[in-house]
Write a structure and sequence with these properties.
The complex is a heterodimer of chains A (464) and B (184). With 464 residues, chain A is mainly α. Chain A has 21 helices and no strands. The chains are: A mainly alpha (464), B mainly alpha (184).
Chain lengths: 464, 184
């Protein structure tokens, strides 16, 4: 077939060739095509082994189909098995016949069709969302049995484990992408935890016994959340602040674009809330840059991570009406106060607290019972200590610390208020008083050491 | 489990061997015919995946080379249909090529004529010829197929192939000379 002598054209044309990388890429594409379209061995070999005579010797009635009949049957089958059934399966819930197809065929096929590792992680996160949505739907209908819940919890674990595996792979090639993927996964899990918590509270308030528990599932999501939040300090040190900042900026743009599209369909209040979070994010991105500049690499990285998570949560809030109707935005992404707002907020609390101190010093004289009085005085002392530390934190612009002190002060004030209205005890039991106040005071008396006791109080109160 | 071909080796092995042997040649062919590297790679890819679909459907390919060329050629023709290039006749008329000149083409061997041209410039100019010429010229002088193989491949008679080769070369030489000024 070869032409006898090579012409100059042929010789010259030999220089026209694919680059090694092009050829390798082409080969990979062809090979993956082959892998997705394997030769149907069993069919072919069976057909080859069967002698023609065997085809007609069996005592069966032979139905003859014309080729168009065959084609229409074949296409009906193809439609049924490749289109109709999988589509129908998409709506299946645990316990339905087609549910396994949805989870183990449809979703797996989709997983195998994603090439980029970050997309694979995103898809696993979406699968977790789907499982939680199924659980919520079943719970709403009162059909969530403990068996189904256990299955869902196990599947959630599978999804998050494979997401973690993908993240680990991604880390070797694209550390920043891996960090972003990890933050996305964590925030998805966080949103889902919030959703499950709202499901648990609705079902318990409506008193539906069979649906009251999503605890197994909540536990699975919580575990996964802890696992997803863990990161490796060595990898962290290698992350490039600029690349992370780029990812953050593009995510922020994505969130803004989404805001533009949902703007028209949400309430005014939601709009204001989201707008506020978006401007918070923008401001905080600037702050992280500042942290890097001042050499606080770890703090900056943490801030970037949490911002990334906040943006993802904000996106979930905007895109998922379920989330919007059952979870408050403040619980997902709390407002980030500006310095001025912080200052104003802290000052207001400080003023109130100082006012209370004056009030309490007057009340002190009115308490007759000596034991209560001792506790009260000790509480007052704690309050003054807290107030001065709050004042100091404000003057040094340490607002994070200030915001942590405020709830302690509020709790202590409430305790003292309770104490001063406690009637003089008639029995040992009455000494315990009412509500939270009792807890505070009993601890205060035993230790009488300012800050540490009131901290213990607050922790207890927060737990309520 | 791999299916085994009657030609020895699994279907996969034979197919990948064909890839190693012919992918460069197919790319080169497509590249000259289309004057577009990216599309050439795409069409080479499509040629291989189509060939594999044929194997996958339970068919045996006796000889990969003509089979792959055939598929590639059809893909390139489809590509031209998409581009809706000018009809051959229109170009011939516009260029006023007078049949019956270039007697040397009828007497001397075509390879001599080809070798007399500067290969790089000639292959650049081949891209400006109508595809019916580009097709036969590339198959014959770049891929080194004989007139009979070409005839089978493009489903025309050997006579038609021969006429197209002659006319193609003549048009090409005219294009080259128009750029250079006539050669003595």
């Amino acid at each position: 077939m070869k032409y006898k002598k090579q012409t100059t054209w042929e010789l010259y044309a030999k220089t026209i060739r694919m680059r090694a990388a092009e050829k390798r890429a082409l080969r990979e594409r062809v090979v993956s095509y082959m892998e997705y379209h394997p030769v149907r061995v069993s069919l072919r070999e069976a057909a080859a082994e069967q002698k023609p005579s065997q085809l007609f010797s069996e005592p069966f009635v032979v139905f003859r189909f014309s080729s168009w009949q065959f084609r229409s049957f074949a296409s009906a089958f193809v439609f049924l098995f490749l289109v109709a059934v999988p589509t129908y399966a998409e709506h299946a819930l645990p316990g339905d016949v087609l549910y396994n197809m949805k989870v183990h065929v449809n979703e797996e096929v989709k997983a195998s069709l994603t090439w980029q590792t970050s997309d694979k992680v995103a898809w696993q996160a979406t699968r977790v969302e789907r499982r939680i949505a199924e659980a919520r739907l079943l719970a709403k209908e009162g059909k969530l049995t403990s068996d189904k819940e256990a299955t869902l919890a196990a599947t959630v674990r599978e999804h998050t484990e494979s997401a973690s595996r993908e993240i680990a792979t991604l880390r070797t090639t694209d550390a920043e992408g891996a960090a972003a993927a990890q933050a996305t996964l964590s925030s998805t899990l966080e949103v889902q935890t919030a959703l499950l918590a709202s499901t648990a509270s609705t079902s318990s308030s409506t008193g539906m016994a069979s649906t009251s528990s999503v605890s197994t599932l909540a536990k699975a999501v919580e575990d996964a959340k802890m696992g997803a939040a863990a990161h490796d300090p060595i990898v962290d040190a290698s992350l490039s602040p600029e690349k992370l900042a780029d990812i953050l900026n593009s995510e922020e743009k994505r969130a803004r674009a989404m805001f533009e599209t949902v703007k028209g369909s949400i309430s005014n209040e939601e709009r204001t809330d989201i707008d506020r979070r978006l401007s918070d994010t923008e401001r905080m991105i600037g702050d992280t840059k500042h942290l890097y500049e001042t050499g606080e690499h770890d703090a900056a990285l943490d801030a970037q991570r949490s911002l990334f998570g906040d943006i993802q949560k904000l996106i979930s809030y905007m895109s998922d009406i379920e989330v919007r109707t059952s979870v408050s935005l403040e619980s997902l992404v709390p407002k980030k106060l500006t310095q001025e707002e912080n200052n104003a907020d802290v000052s207001a609390h400080l003023e109130d607290a100082k006012h209370k101190v004056l009030e309490f010093s007057k009340d002190e004289a009115l308490i007759l019972d000596p034991r209560i009085k001792t506790k009260f005085v000790s509480g007052e002392k704690d309050l003054s200590t807290l107030i001065s530390s709050l004042d100091l934190a404000r003057s040094e612009n340490r607002f994070d610390e200030a915001q942590q002190t405020i709830p302690k002060i509020t709790a202590l004030i409430a305790d003292l208020e309770g104490l001063k209205t406690t009637p003089p005890p008639t029995t040992e039991k009455a000494d315990i008083g009412t509500g939270d106040a009792s807890t505070t005071i009993s601890t205060t008396t035993t230790t009488s050491e300012g800050t540490s006791t009131s901290t213990a109080t607050t922790t207890k109160k927060e737990a309520h | 489990m791999m299916a085994h071909s009657t030609h020895g080796g699994s279907h996969e092995e034979r197919f990948l061997k064909a890839f190693e042997e012919y992918s460069d040649a197919l790319f080169r062919h497509a590249s000259i015919r289309l004057s577009d590297r990216e599309r050439a790679i795409e069409l080479t890819h499509d040629a291989f995946t189509k060939a594999w679909s044929y194997v996958q459907g339970g068919n045996e390919i006796d000889s990969y080379r003509p089979f792959l060329y055939k598929i590639l050629n059809n893909l390139i023709i489809d590509e031209y249909r998409k581009r809706r290039e000018d009809s051959l006749d229109a170009i011939l008329e516009r260029d006023g090529v007078d049949e019956g000149t270039f007697d040397e083409l009828h007497h001397g061997s075509l390879e001599e004529v080809v070798d007399a041209m500067d290969a790089r410039r000639a292959l650049d100019k081949v891209g400006e010829l109508p595809d019916v010429y580009r097709e036969v010229l590339t198959l014959r002088f770049v891929d080194g197929l004989g007139p009979k193989d070409i005839a089978q491949l493009i489903e025309e008679s050997e006579n038609v192939v021969s006429v197209r080769l002659h006319r193609g070369l003549r048009t090409l030489r005219e294009l080259l000379e128009r750029n250079d000024g006539p050669k003595t």
